[in-house]
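Hello again, I could really use a second opinion on something today. I've been staring at a protein lately and its backbone has me curious. You're getting the sequence in one-letter code plus the fold written as tokens. I'd be grateful if you could look everything over and explain what you see. No rush at all, and the record is pasted right below:
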Amino acid sequence: MSFEVKDKRVTVAGAARSGIAAAELLARRGARVTLSETRRAVPEAGVLLSLGVRLELGGHQTESFTEADLVVLSPGVPPETAVVQAARDHGVPVIAEIELAYRWLQGRVIAITGTKGKSTTTALTGRMLEAAGFKVTVGGNIGAPLSAQVSESTPDTFHVVEASSFQLEQIDTFHPWIAVMLNFSPDHLDRHPTVDAYGAAKARIFENQDGRDFAVINADDPAVLELARRGRAAARLFARSGAVERGTVIEDGWIVDRYSGLPQRLIPLSAIHLLGPHLVHDVMAAATVGAIAGAAPAAMTAAVDAFRGLEHAMELVAEREGVRFVNDSKATNVEAALRSIESFDRDLVPIVGGKFKGGDLRLLREPLKTRARAVVAIGEARPLVREALGDVIAVHEANTLADAVARAFELAKPSGVVLLAPACASFDMFRDYADRGRRFKDEVRKLTAS
């Protein structure tokens, strides 16, 4: 596919990691680039200016969008933004950053989406394929944006890409060789108008696939099966329940591929060192991709055995006076928090709250009744947490994360677990979920050092 931007006027909306990478890529390909951002300063401004990028800071100017030949959206910029809609009204094409990068990739794309577990599965898939000797880049919604990987792309590269609904809703030609959908539950309803719209954005991962491609699908999740139903790729199912005849299943303590007749043992469950049984699904998805790509089971097992998870995803931080502290700051929706809570049997004290973005907090009631001693609520969502849970479990409110950690520690003594599982976004108190997770770990370290 020939895609040229030389001397074209291209406006990139949003100067987070993806937007900066897109602006650099476009400038190096000869485009006349405007990077438009509502903040008054951006990182790497010097590099961008040296490449000839025009910086439009402190707000979006309508003319920069309506007079462009192309608009590229960072994932954080809603497509309904007035200037973006104005560009569309003037016939200007609007695409996602991953769509832009995809048009210049030479290698094959393995794209991974889902409401929960994308980052873990993406990272683990990359490590499995690297251990098997393939040339791999890993990124997208985590790590390096896809635009930053174009210069490394060769025909034999596997690009393992974490793809969010925000990125997928603005694709056009983006065509993964392997598309993975891990799970689906309501999320981002502060951005998507309905659950159906959120699901439709996720399902676009399958849209451009054909019969030579593969769709890796969680058969334990009925919503995923429904969203993948119209896809044209060859379906490769995985199910921890064992409810599929041809696919990836658990048998006799092993992850087993029984897609092609004789069952092939891929990875022993004893090699998995991740907190939380729900993360077995992520390992099964990654193993299914590895099997399709031709990775040897021994290489996949070695990668899993060495993998201790990602920061802010069921991360064991410390233990003090018999109390364990676990950071799952990436649990930014109710379903993710539910999975976190269900990973522990008893004596749990979750820290819940932040900027609520939709879903039903009452889904946490039953698992908390049998597993938790109390809940500590933080952020804007404190009254919502109390209203949803207060009649089944004690809800304590904290004004700061430091207060929340100290209160939860006292409640969890002598043998409990303090779990940061917010079920909410972080933007009321923190820059992002990673900032929240690091601050949690800082407070735990202060507590354990005192």
Residues 99-306 form a domain with the UDP-N-acetylmuramoyl-L-alanine:D-glutamate ligase fold (CATH 3.40.1190.10). The longest helix spans residues 433-449. The mean pLDDT is 94.
